[in-house]
Design brief:
Keywords: Coiled coil. This is GOLGA1 isoform 3. It comes from Pongo abelii (Sumatran orangutan). By secondary structure, the chain is mostly helical. The protein has 2 helices and no strands. The longest helix has 84 residues. The radius of gyration is 35 Å and the shape is rod-shaped. The two termini are 31 Å apart.
């Protein structure tokens, strides 16, 4: 009777050891996942910070380009008025036309640069939003796998 009891206790002890080993392995796995997620969070924070800096630069550049566009537009308007008022002298008219053409080209170049900057900014934002969604999915997956019952 005692030997049966001893065997039963030894089996129970072995079962408890197996369960303990499984819990320890699960804990180590969870800690590893937490560490990986924390590193991904840090990477994301760094990416967000860099994108914020880039966005500030692009915004400042955009404002500057818009100011240049406004200035060039005013200059074109002024040149057109001067051209209308001073139709005497073919050389003077030709010079004003050259100035006007150059100002319009500068205006168009600046508009293209502004368009490119806005496009680049939109791509960067889309990339960041995609990365955020991926990390959120990873976090959801990881948290759901930790909370799943283990047998």
């Amino acid at each position: 009777d005692l030997s049966q009891k001893l065997e039963e206790l030894q089996r129970h002890y072995s079962t408890l050891e197996e369960q303990r080993d499984h819990v320890i392995a699960s804990k180590i796995g969870a800690e590893s996942k937490i560490t990986a997620l924390e590193q991904k969070e840090q990477e994301l924070q760094a990416l967000i910070q860099q994108l914020s800096i880039d966005l500030q630069k692009v915004t400042a550049g955009t404002r500057e380009k818009e100011d240049i566009i406004t200035h060039l537009h005013e200059k074109v308007t002024s040149l057109e008025k001067r051209l209308e008022q001073n139709l005497s002298g073919e050389e003077h008219v030709q010079e004003l036309l050259k100035e006007k053409t150059l100002a319009e080209q500068n205006l168009e170049d600046t508009r293209q640069q502004l368009l490119a900057a806005r496009s680049s900014q939109a791509k960067a934002i889309n990339t960041l939003e995609t990365r955020v969604r991926e990390l959120e999915q990873t976090l959801l997956w990881s948290s759901s796998s930790w909370s799943a019952p283990r047998r």
